[in-house]
Amino acid sequence: MSDPWQECMDHCIEVTKKAGKMIRDALQKDIAIMQKSSPVDLVTETDQRVEQLIISSIKEKYPTHSFIGEESVAAGSPSVLTDDPTWIIDPIDGTTNFVHRFPFVAVSIGFTVKKEIEFGIVYSCIEDKMYTARKGKGAFCNGVPIKVSGQEDITKSLVLTETGFKSNPEHFKTMTANITAILSIPVHGIRSPGSAAVNMCLVACGSADAYYHMGIHCWDMAGGAAIVTEAGGVIMDISGGPFDLMSRRLIVASSRAVAERLVREIIEFDVGRDDQ
Ligand code: IPD
Predict the structure, then answer these.
(1) Beta strands per DSSP E along the chain
(2) Ligand 1 pocket check: which of 220, 221, 252 to mutate, most ligand atoms within 8 Å of Cβ?
(3) Which of 28, 91, 201, 259 suits a disulfide with 51, CB 3.0-4.6 Å?
């Protein structure tokens, strides 16, 4: 039986390559920075232009499909996942990295049908690494199959997380307490590359063994979730329950044992949902 979504995925890869080139070109020029929800929640004209490029080129081919895009939501579009074929887009995942020219900057796109992720594309465009995954067909980086490390021992694991500004002091305390608890297990180390999508791809290709985060968005997670799952990784909610794309939180890991060990250490805080 032919694959109804393969053509969408092929188109997505082509659009993503163009978006990546636009980002690389923008890095050669001055970058004008604007603030969103806080002094450290940044957006640039490039985020907005890249999202427009992606959405217009997909809409032209698939006019009935739905979209959830980081910058469109910031401008007031709804962030609700329906059963429709839906493109979930982060034009620049790692905007802070982009403004500092820190080299982990990705275009991230996930495609869902009936709320299930069918494929994911993450293009780490400075590294020129194109990660792709189609449900049931494996994960690839620049066309070469990738898989997680398979590490089952947390004490031999490299763990990724991100450490953004928190307006609530209790959230700050919990975030740093979680880091202390995980480092005390002990683990080999904690790293913060600055792009959720890249973090998931690093776990997918075995360069890191786990990644956890509370407070990200569906557009940060959708592309990478497909890639890490197809690379043989485990993805779950921070509580150990099933992963929920709209929940703003996740753990991904090389094995269930590592993910569940992190669940035991992590104290949750309320980050709300993308669809509320
Ligand atoms: C951000 C990155 C970062 C994470 C932030 C996200 P953006 O995405 O994924 O790693 O710490 O929470 O918002 O805003 O650069 O698309």
Answers:
(1) 33-35, 42-44, 66-69, 86-93, 106-113, 116-124, 129-134, 139-141, 144-145, 158-160, 189-191, 210-214, 234-236, 249-253
(2) 220
(3) 91
